[in-house]
Amino acid sequence: MLRIPCPHCGARDEIEFTYRGDATVARPGPDAGVDAFHDYLYLRTNPRGWQAEWWQHSSGCRAFLKLLRHTVTHEIRAVATATETLEVPGA
Amino acid sequence: MARYSGLRILGEGFRGNSGWQPAWRKPAPKASYDVVVIGGGGHGLATAFYLAEVHGIRNVAVLERGLIGQGNTGRNTTIVRSNYMLPENNNFYEHSLKLWEGLEQSLGYNVMMSQRGVINLFHNDAQRNAALRRGNSMRLNGIDAEIIDREGVKAMCPIVDLDNGRYPVMGGLLQRRGGTARHDAVAWGFAHAADARGVDIIEHCEVTGMIAEGGAIQGVRTSRGEIRAPKVGLAVAGHTSTLTEMAGFRVPIETHLLQAFVSEGLKPLIDCVVTFGAGHFYVSQSDKGGLVFGGGLDGYPSYGQRGTLPEAEHVYAAGVSMIPALGRLRGLRSWAGVMDMTPDGSFYICKTPVQGLYMTAGWCYGGFKATPGSGWCHAWTIAKDEPHRLNAAHTLDRFREGRMLDERGNGPFFWAQ
To answer: Which residues of A touch B405 (CB under 8 A)?
Structure first.
C-alpha cells in the first residue's frame, strides 16, 4: 500500500489516487510531425528505478500531481503540483 | 527417446528412483553461437526448442539471469485458451492452442494439459451481444465456441451464484478446448526437449550489454563473459525495455504488476475455468485442489514482483460476488508477475531496428497460453529473418502505421489494457 503525500490534502492511501502515466513525455507542437507524435504517444523509457509520473487525486482534491517514485521499491521521494518541476536522479 | 513414460516410472519405483538423470545439462557458455536467446522462461525455451526442431538450428544458447522458469512462467494462473476476437490475434492463439494439444508428444514430457473448458460469464443483453460477436468471430476462423445459457452454466459449474442480486448470470461463452496446463512443467519440458536437441541452457548468466556494430547485432556481454552471435532473440517479459535500452532504442512498453492467488486445498469444486463478467476475476482448480485465481493489474508501473493489497482485496471481493461460498475460503499464497503492457493490449513478435535482433514481447496478460505459439513464431522470424503470416501484424511499427490490434478499444493507455 502506497501512502501518497498530496500537497493539498496531506498523506493519503493509494486507493484515493489514479496513475495517469509517465510525466517526462511532453506533447509536441502541432507541426512537429508524425514521428514526434508517435514517440509522444507510444514510446516510453519504462525505467527500472526512479520515474516521474502523473497521478490524479481522483477521490480527493482531484488535482493532477507529479510523483517521483521508484519502480522496484515503490518508495516515493518527492511530490510536486502539475506546474512545478521534479528532478529525476540519474535521468 | 522415451525418457519419461509410465513404464519407466513403474520400473524406477522398483529401483528406489535411483536411475533418474537431470532433465537438462548445465553447460558453460561457449564463445559463440548461431543464435542466442535471452530469457529462460517458457517463451525463450520454446524459441530454442522450435529453432532446433523445426529449423534445424541447434547451435543455440538460452541465457537466463536466475533459474529456469522462475519468472512469469511460474507466476500465472495457467489458463490456456484462444477466445480472442481480432483475426490477427485469434489465428495466432489458435495456432498456439493446437501446439498445446500435441505438446506432450512433441516434448516427451507431461505438462498436464487439461482441456476442461473456459467459460466467460455474461450478465446482461449487451454483454451477451459482445460474447456472441466474439464467439462468431472465433467460429469464422475455425475455432470452437458455444453460447451456453443459465442451465448450461449450472450444469458445468454449479458453485457459481446464478442469482447474484446485482449481476444475475445470463449465460456464458464457452470454449471447450480451452483449459489449463502445469506451468512449471511447461518450462521444464521445453528445457528438457531443447537440451536433448543440443541447445545450451545457461542459468545464472545475466546479460549486461549488447554488442552491435554498424546497426547489426554481434553478440551480448554477460556476467559470464562475452558471447558472440549473429542473431539474438529477446524473450524477457517485463524487462524487455531494459534490454532494448542497451541496444539503443525505446519500445512501446510499460511494465506493470499482475497478481495471482491460490487458496488452501479443497475437494473437487470447479472442474472448468470460469471468468466473472461483472468484475475482473477468473478461477480454476489445480490438480492439488487449490483454487487458482487472479484479477486485473495493480494499476501503476512496477518491477517489484510483489502485489499490493488494494488489488488483492478487489480480486477477493469479485470472487465472493461470483461464488459466495469462497467467503469461507482461506488464501494460501499470492504472487505477482511483471507484465510488459503495450498501448493496444496485443503483443510483439518481430524484427527490431537493430539488424539480427528479434523479440517476443509485450504479452500483457496473455503470455502463458501463448508459450508454444510465441516460441514457434519467434523461431520462424529468427530463422528466416522475416515474420510468419501469423505474427506479420505484430510489429513495433503498427502504431505509426495506424494498424492497432486493440481487442478492447481502450485507447493508447498501457495500464488500461
So the answer is: none
